[in-house]
Write a structure and sequence with these properties.
Shape: globular
CATH architecture of the largest domain: 3-Layer(aba) Sandwich
Number of domains: 2
Strand content: 5-15%
Oligomer: single chain
Largest sheet: 6 strands, parallel
Number of strands: 8
Bound molecules: 2-phosphoglycolic acid, magnesium ion
CATH superfamily of the largest domain: HAD superfamily/HAD-like
């Protein structure tokens, strides 16, 4: 039996969310999907802004700024602290605060960060069912391995892409297309699972099916606005029995 045939047999044996029927590759977002990382992102941003004697945001504020990578996070934080539009933030100041942020965040990106419930069990069950799992985050690549190692998730993924791994990041479909091509899986057999409109936009543009977690960040907006193919309150709903179809659109 070839490897692909084995995969399909294994997948068919499990109870799965209907969205996964016939699918072979699942791409997962990281922040707000697998890990609640805002406490550490906020702590690093507060230290970097404090170095400049600027106003300091609460975690709640920071959670609305996550999703487009760390440089954007810092620019949004500066815009908030300076009460100016993001476009008006000085480049030199943003570069300096971003460098400080990266240094502080890199000290321990997992200190206050937690896995969401059901994440590890779900990822390994999907991997063991024969799915190819890819991690596609906008977080800089250098932080990905330390976080996955800390949470013992490295072995779940066949590929990990950060926001700076390729020429363009989400909402551009490039990282998702790259993952699908790497494993020779047509886009119609792929799913994007994420928490923000950028995940949904990238997934739709790549031709993937889309599933959205309702507990993530998404700039304070309901992720249902992005019209995902499925809404999930927990990642473990990906392992829900086929009869459970209420959350599929
Ligand atoms: O770094 C960010 O802005 C968010 O990263 P994510 O793509 O894993 O949500
Ligand atoms: Mg996210």
């Amino acid at each position: 039996m070839n490897q692909d045939a084995g995969r399909h047999d294994a997948v068919a044996d499990r109870a799965l969310h209907p969205l996964l029927a016939g699918k072979r590759l699942i791409a997962f977002d990281l922040d707000g999907t697998l890990i609640d990382s805002v406490p550490d992102l906020a702590a690093a941003l507060v230290r970097a802004l404090d170095d400049e004697r600027l106003a300091l945001p609460e975690r709640e504020d920071v959670s609305r700024w996550v999703g487009n990578g760390t440089r954007k996070l810092v620019e949004r934080g500066l815009a908030w602290a300076l009460e100016t539009p993001v476009e008006a933030v000085d480049e030199t100041l943003a570069a300096r605060v971003h460098a400080a942020f990266l240094s502080y965040y890199g000290e321990a990106p997992h200190r206050l960060t937690q896995l969401y419930p059901g994440v590890a069990e779900t990822l390994f069950a999907l991997r063991d069912s024969g799915f190819v799992l890819a991690l596609v985050t906008n977080k800089p690549e250098r932080f990905v391995a330390p976080l996955l190692e800390h949470f013992a998730l490295c072995d779940a993924f066949s590929l990990c892409l950060g926001g700076d791994s390729l020429a363009r990041k989400k909402p551009d479909p490039l990282p998702l297309c790259h993952a699908a091509e790497r494993f020779g899986v047509p886009a119609g057999h792929c799913v994007m699972v994420g928490d923000s409109r950028h995940d949904m936009a990238a997934g739709k543009a790549a031709g993937f099916a889309t599933a959205a977690l309702t507990y993530g960040y998404n700039h304070g907006e309901p992720i249902s606005d992005s019209m995902p193919d499925a809404l999930l309150d927990s990642l473990s709903e990906l392992l829900a029995a086929p009869a459970r179809t209420s959350s599929i659109r």
